[in-house]
Design brief:
The chain is mainly beta. It is built from one helix and 21 strands. 3% of the residues lie in helices and 57% in strands. The strands form two sheets. The protein has a 15-stranded mixed β-sheet that branches. It has a five-stranded mixed barrel with strand order 1-2-3-6-5.
C-alpha cells in the first residue's frame, strides 16, 4: 500500500491534500466527519484556518471539495497494511459549483459591487488576470462597462468568486454565455436557474441533451412540464430537467433580468 513508501515505520503526521466527492458526512456537536472516496476527514471549526467559496453549511453528500491539512497515520490491525489515516482539515475549497460567465461586467467606481447578469462578482486572491482587467477594477474601478469572461465558484449567498477574468471587448447583452449547474426549477413559470440566473428554456434557439458521449437534439415535452423529449416524430421522453444537472448556454441574450435565446445544452453524467 502507499504507506510502504515510508518503510516499516511511517511518520505519524504528514502534510496532505485531497480533492474528491463527499461520499459520507456526519456532524456531532459542530464537528464534521467526512468520507472523501474512502479517505476519512475530520473538520473541527476551531482548527479550520480557511474555507473558500462557502461555509461549513454548504457541505453536502455528492459535493466535490478540496481539503488541505495534516494526515494522521496510525496503526490499525484491521486496515490494509496495518495502518489507517485521518486527514485533519485546515483549508477547504468547495469545487462543485463552478460557473463560467461571458457577459457585460458592471461596477463603476472602486469599491462598488461588480455584477454580471445580476450576479455579484468577487475577485479571488488567486485571480488569473491575463488582460489586467482585474487589476484595473481593483485599483481604478471601471470607467465603463465591458464584456468579460469570469470563471469561478458560487457560494451559499450567490456570490461568484472569480478565479479567472478576461476582457472580451465592448459590452454586448445580446451575446452572453453561461455554463453552470441548474440550482432551481420553477415549474409554475417554466423557468430554470443556471447558477442563480433565470432562463426560459422554451425561448432557446436550439436544445440539445448530452448523455455520456451521446448528443441528442431535443425539444420541450408537451405532456410534462420542463421535460425533454427527442426532436423527432417518436417524441420519446428522455429527461426531466432537475437541479444539479449542468446547463450550457451559448450566444444567448440577457434582458428583463433573465436569459433567453441562444443554443442551450444540458449535460447528464
Amino acid at each position: 500500500d502507499g504507506l510502504s513508501l515510508f518503510g516499516k515505520e511511517p511518520p505519524e503526521q504528514v502534510p496532505a491534500a485531497v480533492e474528491a466527492i463527499i461520499t459520507g458526512l456526519e456532524e456531532d456537536e459542530g464537528l464534521f466527519t467526512l468520507n472523501l472516496d474512502g479517505q476519512k476527514v475530520k473538520v473541527d471549526p476551531e482548527e479550520l484556518l480557511d474555507i473558500v467559496f462557502g461555509t461549513l453549511d454548504d457541505l453536502r453528500l455528492g459535493g466535490r471539495i478540496e481539503v488541505e491539512g495534516t494526515l494522521e497515520i496510525f496503526e490499525d490491525p484491521d486496515a490494509p497494511g496495518g495502518y489507517d489515516t485521518v486527514l485533519h482539515a485546515e483549508k477547504i475549497q468547495l469545487r462543485d459549483s463552478l460557473v463560467d460567465l461571458t457577459a457585460p461586467l458592471t461596477g463603476g467606481a472602486t469599491g462598488q459591487v461588480l455584477e454580471m447578469l445580476g450576479v455579484a462578482i468577487s475577485l479571488a486572491p488567486n485571480l488569473e488576470d491575463p488582460d489586467g482587467l482585474g487589476q484595473q477594477v481593483l485599483s481604478e474601478g471601471l470607467e465603463e462597462d465591458v464584456q468579460a469572461r469570469t470563471l469561478g465558484f458560487l457560494d451559499s449567498a450567490g456570490v461568484l468568486h472569480a478565479e479567472l477574468i478576461e476582457d472580451e471587448g465592448p459590452p454586448n447583452p445580446d451575446l452572453v454565455s453561461v455554463n453552470a449547474l441548474i440550482t432551481e426549477i420553477d415549474s409554475d413559470q417554466g423557468l430554470i436557474f443556471l447558477g442563480t440566473v433565470p432562463m426560459d428554456p422554451e425561448s432557446a434557439d436550439s436544445l440539445q441533451l448530452k448523455i455520456g458521449d451521446d448528443l441528442i437534439d431535443v425539444k420541450l415535452s408537451t405532456s410534462c412540464v420542463l421535460c425533454l423529449e427527442s426532436d423527432d416524430e417518436n417524441d420519446e421522453l428522455l429527461q426531466e430537467l432537475e437541479p444539479d444537472m449542468r446547463g450550457r448556454l451559448t450566444e444567448g441574450r440577457f434582458d428583463d433580468s433573465r436569459l433567453s435565446g441562444g443554443d442551450l445544452l444540458f449535460l447528464v453524467d
